[in-house]
Amino acid sequence: MTIKAETLNNKPKAIILRTAGTNCDNETKYALEKAGAFVDLIHINQVLNEKSLLGLYQILVLPGGFTYGDDIAAGKVLANQLRHHLLDELIQFVDDGKLIIGICNGFQVLVKMGLLPRINDIQYSLNGYK
């Protein structure tokens, strides 16, 4: 079986952000590759130094783990890093119709940085949310 170059060009590129305490990034890379994506594992410092890197990808993954030890609060340090240094780029990423997934601690990061739309509008009660 021969793979055409045009097929390779249509594969989405995913970036998995790594930092102190992240885990399951290799398993996530494997799953994305099995689904047909090209995947790069990149440390957050590289993205902070080259913000234009995000524009090369269609999928951004914030993996699980215990970023920075979760000593302050789950995901808070990474959320602050992203909010204060990459918020404009992340908003543009979403506005361009690109995908972001937060797995476990990565989802906590998305919530804490306020990137999820309308998250503050949800009202919870003892019986669920309204």
Automatic annotation (TrEMBL):
Instruction: Write out the GO cellular component annotations.
Output: cytoplasm
Q: Which InterPro entries match?
A: Class_I_gatase-like
* SUPFAM superfamilies referenced in this protein's UniProt entry, alphabetically: Class I glutamine amidotransferase-like
**One of this protein's Pfam families, by short name?**
GATase_5
PROSITE patterns to which the protein is assigned, alphabetical: GATASE_TYPE_1
Molecular function, one GO term: phosphoribosylformylglycinamidine synthase activity
GO terms in the biological process aspect are: purine nucleotide biosynthetic process
Name of the protein in question: Uncharacterized protein
